[in-house]
Design a protein that fits this description.
Length: 359
């Protein structure tokens, strides 16, 4: 069988620089890119945070928490997006001046997903004034009710599709909640938390909060944002491409968290040549392995560590967990194939003409 390959014409209406070859112009066009400004991934082109519904209410709660030195507890999730979201929240809030920020991540084996009432009971031991969910919470109606019954204020930051009934939280920031006007619906959990930090910094700046303290450079968190965005396999629309491109640029320039660099080292990759695919296929799985086999605290501590040697130790532990995960998956596959071999499917009458094929 012969295959004929035809060159597609460059679509009309393109306004890309002449330096781009027709091939590259066709590639851009196939991804919906037609204007030169659409391939400018500068931070100035990020969508404005003001369009996110609920972000003003969430910001004011955080401003008050900082000014009154309230105890803040971040409730995360056990995947790479949850781990990076948690790290971004803690690093960002501490940089703003919060002095009592802790985190809690549920074990998938004991508590399942989200802010369950049982997890809130555990969170109560931390005596938080303000509870912030990252990458979860939009469906946690009972958990939020339990938290508020204990006197906690609750801010939900999430990106998953919202149910018909929303939790009765003090504030919800989620681009996929009803009546939200944010133009991109593809922010992942770490992206939502990063946007909330941008809004918080702007509010604190306007109030003079940084008169006697250093104003944080939130771009220093973009390596974490890039990792969580790619690892969560959300569509890379223009807004997410900006976040990922900026994060990768910082990593390649050596301006990344020690934990990110340690993960790159154990994955035997080069930071200066790191690609988005490396975030998804090499760094992300090592974080995810912790949440699948044990708990995500090892991954979060790796991302929070400012000590390079300590970060390497934690990254090595994550690498070992990932090796264990791969061995378990390989063993399960072999067991499944052995079962198929024993069934001898060709000699059995399967209902409705069902056929199973193994590849």
């Amino acid at each position: 069988m012969s295959v004929r390959i035809e060159r597609r014409p460059v679509p009309e209406g393109l306004s890309l620089p002449d330096k781009h070859s027709p091939v590259l112009q066709r590639i851009y066009a196939s991804r919906g890119v037609k204007q030169a400004t659409e391939i400018d991934y500068g931070l100035k082109h990020l969508l404005p945070w003001q369009a996110l519904r609920g972000i003003d209410a969430a910001t004011q709660l955080l401003v008050r928490a900082l000014r009154e030195k309230k105890r803040i507890l971040i409730v995360g999730d056990y995947d790479a997006d949850g781990a990076t979201s948690c790290a971004v929240a803690i690093r960002g809030l501490r940089a703003m001046g919060a002095n009592d920020v802790q985190y809690l991540v549920p074990s998938r084996f004991d508590f399942g997903y989200g802010l369950s009432p049982e997890l809130v009971d555990l969170a109560r031991d931390y005596r938080p004034d303000l509870l912030i969910t990252v990458d979860n919470g939009i469906a946690s109606i009972e958990g939020v009710a339990r938290a508020r019954s204990y006197g906690m204020q609750v801010v939900i930051t999430d990106h998953h599709l919202a149910p018909e009934q929303l939790p009765d939280a003090d504030a919800i920031v989620n681009p996929n909640q009803p009546q939200d006007q944010f133009a991109s619906k593809h922010l992942c959990g770490v992206g939502v938390m990063f946007y909330l930090l941008m809004a918080l910094r702007a509010s604190l700046r306007d109030s003079g909060w940084f008169t006697d303290r250093a104003e944080p450079n939130l771009a220093e968190l973009l390596d974490l944002v890039a990792l969580g965005t790619v690892a969560d396999v959300v569509p890379l629309d223009r807004n997410n491409r900006i976040l990922v491109a900026q994060g990768l640029a910082r990593i390649r320039a050596g301006q990344c968290q020690p934990g990110i660099l340690a993960l790159i080292e154990v994955a035997n990759k080069s930071a200066t040549h790191l690609a988005a695919s490396d975030l998804g296929f090499f760094l992300g799985p090592r974080l995810n392995a912790a949440g699948r086999l044990e708990d995500m605290s090892v991954g979060i501590e790796c991302l929070l560590s400012d000590d390079a040697q300590h970060a390497r130790t934690l990254a090595a532990e994550l690498h070992a967990l990932n090796q264990q995960r791969r061995e378990i998956e390989a063993e399960m596959q072999q067991q499944a194939l052995a079962v198929l071999d024993r069934l001898d499917l060709e000699d059995q009458d399967l209902p409705y003409g069902l056929c199973l094929h193994r590849s």
